[in-house]
Amino acid sequence: MFGPSQAAARLEGSKRFTKQLCDRAGIPTAGYAAVGSVAAGQAALGRFGPPYVLKADGLAGGKGVVIAETRAQAETALAELLGGQVDAASRRAGAGAGAGAGVVIEEFMRGEEVSFFALTDGAAILPFGSAQDHKRAFDGDTGPNTGGMGAYSPASILTPELRDEVMRRIIAPTVHRLAQDGTPYSGVLYAGLMLTAQGPRLIEYNCRFGDPECQALMLRFEGDLADYLLACAEGRLAELAPARFTQACALTVVMAARGYPANPETGGAIAGIELAEASGAQVFHAATALGAAGGLVAMGGRVLGVTAAGADVARAHTRAYAAVAAIDFPSGFFRRDIGWRELARSQA
Predict the structure, then answer these.
(1) One digit per residue, pLDDT tens: the chain, 348 residues?
(2) Strand pairing class (302-310; 249-257)
(3) How many degrees, rounded to 5, is the angle at CA 275 between CA 273 and CA 277?
(4) Which of helix, strand or coil describes residue 291?
(5) Which long-range CB contacts under 8 A does 44-52 form with residues at least 24 apart?
(6) For residue 346, which of 310, 318, 313 has the smallest C-alpha distance?
(7) Residue 56 · residue 83 · CB < 8 Å
(8) Three-state secondary-structure class, residue 323
(9) Exposed, middle or buried: residue 153 (CB in 10 Å: 0-12, 13-18, 19+)?
(10) CB neighbourhood size of 158 (10 A)
(11) C-alpha span between 324 and 72 (Å, rounded)
């Protein structure tokens, strides 16, 4: 089977578990305190300066993070997260439901975020590309955190030298430590990284390719994905050649339902998908259904992932947004600045 065991999947399921693994393996990450009560959390906040980063320990739909600018905001979020009122925190800061009973308070890291992927069968490890997500709901990285409003691949800021450092200091120690602990990891490792002045540091792990990064990544992948998944499942990843990706850039724009992430509006009519794809774009459906009249309607928060490729990020950006413009989704919204960091670098 492709994918980790329940025990190994705690890398994503528990922030506390991952932080403790980083301690044991010497993996660079943000300083932290794992707490289970409001009193312990208030004491731990004194170790950190603003802005304060609070994370629900358990799964939270990719949105269980509160970044509080003041101590008062941090204490309010702490009480809500620990008191089971995650939905209230969500409305203010983009956290999601389904969190665990604990909270991890982290040092705020400064730098640029990037996503790095690797495949492993528990022993062999193969790099599998990079991307950069856009978590905030609105242009200019404003608004609440979401599961991701768009992404592009590759992320040029993750140079070959930095990629090698990530493999050596973060990915390999994770795989080796889990094997030593008797919980070998097989599957894809999605490392969310912060590129700080001190080097790459781990933010968190996902045990899946991730949305919308997967859409951009797969548009560039040149091999047969099934070959790699099967090799991971059968413990023979070392037999395969390195994964191949086109030199082109791919960019995904998420079209979300109005009110997302807190209260997405469902039932909104969608048209123009065929017209968008006629331009060469690929439209991935995330939360759509056939309505009573037979037309396409929105049935969730992030509804469509409009993806296009180009020789560089500027061309991919132009093609993706031309496809977005062809789609008629009156009750939807999207960010207009996906890829802005990479565009700025390419124009410098």
Answers:
(1) 889 999 999 999 999 999 999 999 999 999 999 999 999 999 999 999 899 999 988 766 555 788 899 999 999 999 988 885 444 443 343 333 334 469 999 999 999 999 999 999 999 999 999 999 999 999 999 998 898 999 999 999 999 999 999 999 999 999 999 999 999 999 999 999 999 999 999 999 999 999 999 999 999 999 999 999 999 999 999 999 999 999 999 999 999 999 999 999 999 999 999 999 998 999 999 999 999 888 999 999 999 999 999 999 999 999 999 999 999 999 999 999 999 999 999 887
(2) antiparallel
(3) 70
(4) coil
(5) 44/105, 45/71, 45/74, 45/75, 45/78, 45/105, 47/105, 48/105, 48/106, 48/107, 48/108, 49/108, 50/74, 50/108, 51/108, 52/105, 52/108
(6) 313
(7) no
(8) helix
(9) buried
(10) 22
(11) 41
**What is the rounded CA–CA span in Å between residue 155 and residue 171?**
18
Interatomic CA distance for residues 284 and 306, integer angstroms: 6
Q: Where are the alpha helices (DSSP H) in 172-309?
A: 172-180, 213-220, 225-234, 273-278
Q: What is the pTM of this model?
A: 0.89
Structure token digits, residue 209:
């390719």
Q: At what angle do helices 86-93 and 71-82 cross, to 10 degrees?
A: 140
Annotate 252-280 with DSSP letters as a single string. Answer: EEEEEETTTTTSPPP--EEB-HHHHHHTT
Query: Which residues are CB-contacts of 220 (< 8 A; sequence separation ≥ 6)?
Result: 129, 153, 154, 245, 246, 248, 249, 250, 309
Token match 């490729």: residue?
309
DSSP state of 328: B
How is residue 324 written in tokens?
């977005």
